[in-house]
């Protein structure tokens, strides 16, 4: 008899057994030496908790908000292309799983189901993750997202050039799944596909948006704007000055640029730089409820999971995604009790020991 998964690593192991080798590789891979992918984890492990006892923690509240949208816990589902890699129902199943847990999902531009299909299924808030695909396509995507009821646009900024995974190149991985958001759009494949949905170098080379062009993007929609992939105090400062509503500190799971710090290491300087003028979230390497508590104690408002959503999908579709989220919920709740905390919105910064030397080199005056 096999036990139900008791942590996210159980889901990981089962997903690896369930998926074809090359599909597993493309989900699991990081860029180049995977240094950043590993560092995302080791950085979390360098942070240690400071438990507090003899406090009344009988009632613990895990609920929070992201840009005013209510979530039952401070964990959301990251945007990721091609969920058909893990399950035939794709993003529709993921949305169902996130909705069962009453939490937010970010839907990738590179989804296999269309944003309208996903919006139809979701009962929890959705943000639309945007890859700039040139002015006309970006405008089309943003207008459709607004129309379909998405609550914000998350612009991914950390993919200025293709970054094929070496494992994909070695496997000659060539499964190109449907691009649900581009049905009927008559453009070459390499314009529609980005580095997360295609293998090799022949992917979208649209010049990325610049800070100056954010004005143009904001002019297309009244929806709030989140920038995904910000990792330095310098960029966080410009983002907040530009009136951006949120920044998602992320290394893209270490899948784009190798040899950077882990995402959690950048949270303190980003939180410092935005001076409370926008919300800060983090993803990359989150695998335990204690990671969530650490991130929130450092000033993040919510935390995203990427690869684990694929593990849940591969193991058991929507139920699997829900299962992954519920395991994290239990672990967050337990860590809160041990840290003497009753609300995730109110975590004390002194809950974690931050290693000496963390943070950016001395900053010039902004
Ligand atoms: C297979 C895969 C596809 C991804 N596709 C996208 C994408 O389309 N857009 C995006 O902004 N991030 C994408 N990401 C990155 C995730 O949003 C997230 O930043 C990352 O997975 C978090 O790290 P973790 O996998 O360690 O949890 C993708 C990640 C994976 C694993």
Q: What's the CATH topology label? A: TIM Barrel
**CATH 4th-level superfamily:** Aldolase class I
Q: How many domains in all?
A: 1
SS-derived structural category: alpha/beta
SS elements, strand count: 12
Largest sheet: number of strands, sense, barrel closure: 8 strands, parallel
> How many helices does DSSP assign?
13
**Succession of helices and strands:** HHHEEEEHEHEHEHHHEHEHEHEHE
Poorly predicted sequence stretches spanning 5 or more consecutive residues: none
Distance between the termini: 60 Å
Shape, principal axes of CA atoms:
globular
Task: Give the second-level CATH assignment, the architecture.
Answer: Alpha-Beta Barrel
Q: What is the strand content?
A: 5-15%
Distinct small molecules? flavin mononucleotide
Gyration radius (Cα, Å) is 19 Å
Helix fraction, binned, reads 25-40%
Structural features:
single chain; TIM Barrel; alpha/beta; two-stranded antiparallel ribbon
């Amino acid at each position: 008899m096999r036990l139900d998964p008791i942590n996210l690593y159980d889901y990981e192991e089962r997903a690896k057994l369930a998926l074809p080798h090359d599909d597993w590789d493309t989900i699991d891979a990081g860029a180049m030496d995977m240094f950043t992918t590993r560092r995302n984890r080791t950085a979390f492990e360098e942070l240690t908790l400071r438990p507090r006892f003899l406090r009344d923690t009988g009632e613990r509240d895990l609920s929070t908000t992201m840009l005013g949208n209510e979530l039952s816990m401070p964990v959301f589902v990251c945007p990721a292309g091609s969920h058909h890699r893990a399950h035939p129902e794709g993003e529709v199943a993921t949305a169902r799983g996130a909705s069962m847990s009453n939490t937010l999902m970010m839907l990738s531009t590179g989804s296999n189901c269309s944003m309208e299909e996903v919006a139809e299924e979701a009962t929890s808030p959705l943000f639309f993750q945007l890859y700039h695909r040139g002015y006309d396509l970006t405008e089309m995507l943003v207008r459709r997202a607004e129309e379909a009821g998405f609550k914000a646009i998350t612009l991914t900024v950390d993919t200025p050039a293709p970054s094929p995974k070496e494992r994909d190149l070695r496997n000659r991985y060539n499964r190109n799944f449907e691009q649900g958001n581009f049905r009927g759009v008559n453009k070459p494949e390499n314009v529609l596909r980005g580095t997360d949905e295609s293998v090799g170098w022949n992917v979208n080379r649209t010049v990325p948006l610049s800070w100056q062009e954010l004005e143009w993007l904001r002019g297309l929609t009244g929806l709030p704007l989140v920038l995904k992939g910000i990792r330095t105090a310098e960029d966080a400062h410009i983002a907040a000055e530009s009136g951006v509503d949120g920044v998602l500190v992320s290394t893209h799971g270490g899948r784009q640029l190798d040899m950077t710090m882990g995402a959690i290491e950048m949270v303190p300087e980003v939180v410092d730089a935005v001076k409370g003028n926008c919300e800060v979230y983090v993803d990359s390497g989150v695998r335990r409820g204690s990671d969530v508590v650490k991130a929130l104690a450092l000033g993040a408002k919510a935390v995203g999971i990427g690869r684990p959503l694929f593990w849940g999908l591969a193991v058991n579709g929507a139920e699997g995604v829900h299962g992954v989220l519920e395991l994290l919920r239990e672990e967050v709740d337990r860590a809160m009790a041990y840290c003497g905390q009753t609300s995730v919105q109110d975590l004390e910064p002194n809950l974690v020991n931050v290693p000496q030397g963390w943070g950016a080199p001395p900053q010039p005056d902004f």
